[in-house]
C-alpha cells in the first residue's frame, strides 16, 4: 500500500500544525518554506499576546523556532526553498522552486502568509510594534489606557475607532488620515464626534517621540495631536502569487484571497487546501493553527474513504 505524498507550502502556525497532524498519521509529508528570505507576519511580530499557552509575549521568531523544533521532533521533511510555481497534470501537483527543484505530490496545502507594508509615514520605523500597531485584536488590550490615534484612509479606520471607543474609550482617541486622498464617510464621522472621538482632516507630517515611544503627532497644517499609540490599517502583499504562474490557480474573492470551504479548507481545486492568511477567513495565528489541524484531519479522512471505498459523510 503506497500512501499519498503531501506537500505543504509555508511553515508558519497553519502549515506546521497541518504537517504535524499528517506526520502523526504516518503520511509522507514535505513542508517547503522560504525561511529568512521572505518574512511573513508571524516572523515580524515583536510580541504575540493571544496564543494559548505562550507566556511573556514572545516574539514571532521565538514562536517559529519552537515550531521548527516540533517539526524536527516528528521528522517532518523540511525544505528551505522558495516556491515559484505550481502546476497540475491529471491528479498530480508539480511544485517548482527557486533553486530549480521540482517536487510532486497527491495533495497540496497552501499555507503561506502575508507581508505587511508600512504606511507612508516618515520616521515610522523605530515605532513599529512598540507604539505603532496594525492589529487591534492583537495589541489593543495591552494599550487600552493610552492616548490612541487611528491612522487610516477610509471608513475601515473610522469603524476601528468606533470599535475601540465601544470596548473601552482611551483617555484620548483620534482619527488621522495617513495621506491627502482619504475618503471618510460623513455619517460615521458625525457618529464618532458624538462619542467624543476627534477626527482630523490633515494628514500626518511628523512623529515625535523617543526610543520607539510615541509622544505626539504633527499634522500637515501644524496641529499637534497627543498620542502614545497608533493603530494603522496597513497594506499587505500576498505570498501566493506563484499559483498564478501555472494551471493550479484556485478561485479567489474580490480582494484576491483564496476562497475555501470553511468546514474543511478545501479550495476550488481538487486536493488543494488553503489555510492561514492566504484564505478568505480571519487572520490570527491561533486560528491558523486550528485551520491546519482541520485540513489535516479532512485529508486523512478523505484518504481513508478513498482507500476503503467508503462514501464521504
From TrEMBL:
Protein name: Thioredoxin reductase
Class of enzymatic activity (EC top level): oxidoreductase
Pfam family, one: Pyr_redox_2
Entries under InterPro entries matching the protein: FAD/NAD-bd_sf, FAD/NAD-binding_dom, Ferredoxin-NADP_redctase_2
MF terms (GO), sorted A to Z: thioredoxin-disulfide reductase (NADPH) activity
Keywords: Flavoprotein, Oxidoreductase
Start and end residues of each FAD/NAD(P)-binding domain: 5-292
E.C. number(s) listed in UniProt: 1.8.1.9
